Amino acid sequence: MFEVLFYLLIFPGFLFLYLCSWLFEFLDRKLLARFQRRIGPPWYQPLADLIKLFSKEDLMPQGANEVVAIALPIVSLCAVLTAGIYVPVAGFSPESFEGDLIIVLFLLSIPTLAYYLAGVTSVGIYSLLGGARSLLQFFSYEVPLLIALSGPAVLAGSWSIQEIIARQSETGAFLLFQPLGFLLAMIGLIGKLKRDPLDIPKAKSEVVAGSLTEFTGVKLGFWHLVMNIQAVVGIFLIINLYIGWTSAGNPLLNISIFLIQWLAMILLLSTASAVFARLRIDQLAGLGWKILVPLSLLQLTVVILMGV
Amino acid sequence: MKEKITIPIGPQHPLLKEPISLRIDASGEEVLGGTLRLGYVHRGIEKLAESRTYTQNIPLIERICGICSHVHTTTFCYAVEALLGIEIPPRAQYIRALLCELERIHSHLLWLGVLAKHVGLETVFMHSWHDRELVLDIMEELSGGRVSHGINQIGGVRFDVDAEHHPMMADKMQKLHERITQFMQIFEREPSIKARTHGVAPLSADLIRQYGLAGPVARASGVDVDMRRDDPLPPYDRLDISVITHPDGDAWSRTYVRIYEIYESLLLCEKILQAIPEGNISVRARRKVPAGEVVVRSEAPRGEVVYYLRSNGTEYPARLKIRTPTLPALAIMPMQLAQIHVADIPVVLAGVDLCIACADR
User: Fold this and answer.
1) What is the ipTM of this complex?
2) What are the pLDDT digits (tens) for A243-298?
3) Total of domains in chain A
4) CB contact under 8 A, A203 and B119
5) Are B303 and B355 in contact (CB under 8 A)?
6) Which residue of B has its CA nearest to A133?
7) What is the pLDDT of residues B64-106, one digit of tens each?
8) Of A234, A297, B117, B241, which one is least surrounded by beta carbons within 10 A?
């Protein structure tokens, strides 16, 4: 009982993931700022922002569904935290079974659907547009992402993330065998996290803040928490699937390698958001279905042939 | 989502730097049309000018616009001087032109940043606004003001360009030249920018002439107009100006025209600094202006600025009419806001470089 609570609340549950998301947000904002010749925020800024949001007055527009608005960020937070428990950190996971990759992928797409619902249930034209866009975006990136992420599973012959890591420790990182799949997974992750350059559902100059335009206070704070923890878990997942590595009996080495990999991934994401312009939603749909899906199918075919 | 929705943009919206109100009719992501409401920054400057003396009017007119403040006062001063029948010393003419060109660089760099921000490329926005500081530094060294210079007076200018200014300016302009080259490379090569700006809401040369658009927007559609060459104020008649045009008329060609105009302005600044004659920088002007009327045109960063001034022989102007290039750009806006994507609205709005403060006055 105590062990379960520890897993849920401390490691790798809420507290650990929150601290990671804090570090992630800080590094991301700082790196982006340095790319843009700005100084960037101090290290405590993500926490300060959260405290500010939590202490603000909570307003809802008239006619919006209060219950749904409260439930959506909480459900999403639960989903990403649950996903976080099944994604191994430095090779450690309290719970691992055949098929946990599918569970994680399912849980990680819940926030996107909640985001869509948040858009259409809060009355506001920008929210509505943002919600519709997020759903369109979901259909554009999710299919190539899922096909790409099934590549490592097929190569390892297992749908358990722990197994995939173990397999990579023997054969070498799957990134070497499927660099295309890694690229597609990164694009998919950027789309999932609605980060630049795929921040179409919340493009400031087009739809103000997208689905979250009408959210304030605690609810908005929860949404920010969801987004950041989703980013952390998503990055963990991609590390595990493509560059996962553990050595038995040396946890310190595992942790330092995992940390370096994580920081490199954050650098990659920040660079992507600094150097590309935002795509239009129709351009993204075209990119997704005409280029990314065929490429991901090609990668999957290659992987299957490699396994034979 | 096929039913018609109305998207309000403005008077308060992250897209807008200045208040206008757009009502966009859209069906899903497709824009059907838009209507426009103006007047949020109307300050009654034209009427206000009638209750002030000509000298008092210069600070007032400088505040019409926060970006092209100098070209407004320059045009006004040339108008008053034409009525007075005085010609200002050549050195003063060159100093006025120098600041006009610096202001053009400053305005175009600012615009470049705004466009980049609207297509979601904040890095270029930050960098171009940072490089804009080089021009602002030059202007601050010359006049003491970064955007409002207070350098014009009726009969000449108030501050001289000293010998020690020359190396500082040459150094900063060299840096600027390198930076602009980088921006040009970014805009020419970066596929995500091209995807967002190529072929977006193009305007034909016929439409441009029909609506009377001027400046970079007209030149980007292949209309070869530039007041600096076509109806030059001194000293532009003594300077060789090449006018940049591009045939396409879309958002990207406007970027092309503006970036090359920055090069051209840098070149002009060099020419001005080389050709600047020695001598006085102002002459005395009478307070009372003889009765008469005059029209003076000049090339602001955004296009043609027209000043009509009528005097009744007193210290106060009888009528001052200012026509800024943003007004026709606003008139053509509803036409541009049709058959585009919602995501293209920022690009269209940024493309014509609206200056609402100029248009409303």
Assistant:
1) 0.81
2) 877 776 778 888 888 889 899 999 999 999 888 888 888 888 888 888 888 998 88
3) 1
4) no
5) no
6) B29
7) 888 888 889 999 999 998 888 888 888 888 888 888 898 899 9
8) A297
Is A274's CB within 8 Å of B15's CB?
A: no
For the domain covering B4-360, report its CATH number. 1.10.645.10
pTM: 0.85
Q: Which residue is associated with the tokens 């700022």?
A: A33
Token pair of B132 as six digits: 């804009």
In a mutational test of the A interface, the residue from B112, B183, B342 whose CB has the highest number of chain A CBs within 10 Å is B342
Residue A198 DSSP SS3: coil
With helix as H, strand as E and coil as C, how does chain B read? Answer: CCCEEEEEECCCCCCCCCCCEEEEEEECCEEEEEEEECCCCCCCHHHHHHCCCHHHHHHHHHCCCCCCHHHHHHHHHHHHHHHHCCCCCHHHHHHHHHHHHHHHHHHHHHHHHHHHHHCCCHHHHHHHHHHHHHHHHHHHHHHCCCCCCCCEECCEECCCCCCCHHHHHHHHHHHHHHHHHHHHHHHHHCHHHHHHHCCCCCCCHHHHHHHCCCCHHHHHCCCCCCHHHHCCCCCHHHCCCCCCCCCCCCHHHHHHHHHHHHHHHHHHHHHHHHHCCCCCCECCCCCCCCCEEEEEEEEECCEEEEEEEEECCCCCEEEEEEECCHHHHHHCHHHHCCCEEHHHHHHHHHHCCCCHHHHHC
Residue segments in chain B with a per-residue pLDDT below the cut of 50:
1
Q: Structural domain of residue A275, as residue ranges?
A: 16-307
In whole angstroms, give the CA distance from residue A33 to residue B28.
Answer: 34
- Confirm whether A1 is domain-assigned: no
Q: Is residue A27 part of a domain?
A: yes
Interface contact flag, A281 B343, Cβ < 8 Å: yes
